[in-house]
Amino acid sequence: MSVEKKNNAVALKLRNFGNQLFAKKEFFEALLKYNHSLCFAEQGTETVGIAYANRSAVYIEMQQFRLCLEDIQLARQHNYPADKLEKLQRREEDCNAAIVNWKPNPYDNPFNFFKLSHASNNKYPGIVDCLTLSNSKMFGNHLITTKTLKTGDIICIEEPAFTAANVDARLYRCSYCFKDSSMKLFPCTGCTKAMFCSEKCQQTAMNEFHQFECNVHGNPAMKIDFHLRLLMKCLNVFDYNVPEFQKFVEKNRKQVTVFDFDFSEPEEPMFSKNAILVMLSIQNNAPYCKLLSTIMGSEIRDFVSCHAKLKQLWKNHGKFLNEMLAKLIFPVTLLTHMSAFFSKEINLPTETCLGRLQEERKPKPAREKMFEQNSGQGLYPAFCLLNGSCDPNVFVVSASNKLVWIVGKSIPAGSQLFCKYDQPFYNSGPASRRQSFFKQSFGYTCCCEACRYDWPRLSALKAVDPSFKYNNNQTLSNHDEAVENIRKNIEYIEKNYKHNRPTKEVYTSIDNNMYEFSSLAKPAWY
């Protein structure tokens, strides 16, 4: 069977797997299978309606009553079998009865917890107003704070300028905006490769890039590259009028950042065009980026050659379009992978695993699995101003499609903000290897104290507090426990952190906080 075309036989197989998981009360995994079934269900057939009905059964069990009622309506609108409508009607009645006294879990919306700790910037509302732009020969543009920031402060909740979910991630994230939407997604009507959270996202994706990858089967060259998607977004802003786009770029060659424009009104006509100028201004001359540009150029040429519209654009304006692609290489490679945090048991099959969906896999501890899934990519203009360090003072978690910046340890006023680009010193190898990575990838050498003094890994750091309690089970807290653990960790770090004396207890607390905050970035019912 083809794993790329709509096929009711594949949809039925996936739905049956979902039913088995539902019977075991493995609801999160059952939702994945029902969404996968929707991807393959042939439009206009009862297979679509049955998949929505099955998904509604999961939502009512998980007390997601609003989602249940919405899926019941979708099932009716998509040819749900008439002889089974009575069963659907009973479920709707049960749902309406339960919803009367239902109180939603506040942790189902991560942004009930994640809120800025200080006043927001008037022109770029996602970032606190005490973060300002600075520049130096070593770091170029970077961020400093004008006031002391405390451990645990939330200093940025940034919306992406552009996102795209990987093909496998479409089962739990919108293929365009990357929001999880509680996994209530709609399949692309033309192909099996995308799901969307709304008609608006589907139409926008089609206008920008999905028109070139939808309903194309069997050709590896038809897998669109994220950098090319980003260029297509730029072209779409100008209705694919390349001369107009080129004229705009030539007129605005000055290097800019998010601090140069007012991004407080997304519907403002210049919003998207100013965002393009910010994206094109993010540069890096490291050898890694130059090599990547060469490799991706070959892949992009293969893709362009398969589409008459794109082929004609490159024929007429190839020099300019290739220049734009080269400029977009760095902002996409700079830590733009967006990891999603799943339930503890989740194992996502790839498309090549369709024939062996019941393959046994050895379960991994939840903390090991937390960041292993590369679910998609996004471009966050303010985030690109954070430089990397082996001893970062800020860590970042993804909540739905936003990046949340959290202070890992106190940052004095006037200090620069750093995040991790690879692994922090306490989870990685010697300083010499980390230095090589930074130089090759980003064109500068990390100058943190962990590198200057070659601080050891976490297990070899000096322990000074016999009363400190370690959590050795490597499991994740529930949401109430996570909030309490964060409070305790913050209190310990603020009290015990010494700038020149790294201790095992303090960095254990910093590391634990990263996981606890990440656990709060997912809805409670996940």
Model description:
The structure is a single chain. By secondary structure, this protein is mainly alpha-helical. The chain is 41% helix and 9% strand. The protein contains 16 helices and twelve strands. It has helices spanning 8-23, 27-40, 46-61, 65-77, 85-99, 199-208, 226-237, 242-251, 271-281, 287-304, 308-333, 366-369, 431-442, 449-452, 479-496, 504-519; strands at 131-136, 140-145, 154-158, 162-165, 186-187, 195-196, 337-338, 376-379, 387-388, 394-399, 402-407, 418-419. A three-stranded antiparallel β-sheet has the order 3-11-10, covered by helices on one side. A hairpin with a 7-residue loop joins strand 5 and strand 6 (195-196).
Overall SS class:
mainly alpha
The number of E-state strands comes to 12
Mean pLDDT: 85
CA distance, first residue to last residue: 32 Å
Low-confidence spans: 332-337, 339-363, 368-372
List SSEs in N-to-C order. Answer: HHHHHEEEEEEHHHHHHEHEEEEEHHHH
Strand content of the residues, in percent?
5-15%
The shape, in one word, is globular
Count of helical regions: 16
What's the main sheet like? Answer: 3 strands, antiparallel
Q: Helicity level, as a percent range? A: 40-55%
User: In which order are the strands of the major sheet placed?
Assistant: 3-11-10
User: Could you tell me the radius of gyration in angstroms?
Assistant: 24 Å
Quick description:
By secondary structure, the chain is mainly alpha-helical. Helices cover 41% and strands 9% of the residues. Residues 332-337, 339-363 and 368-372 have low confidence and may be disordered.
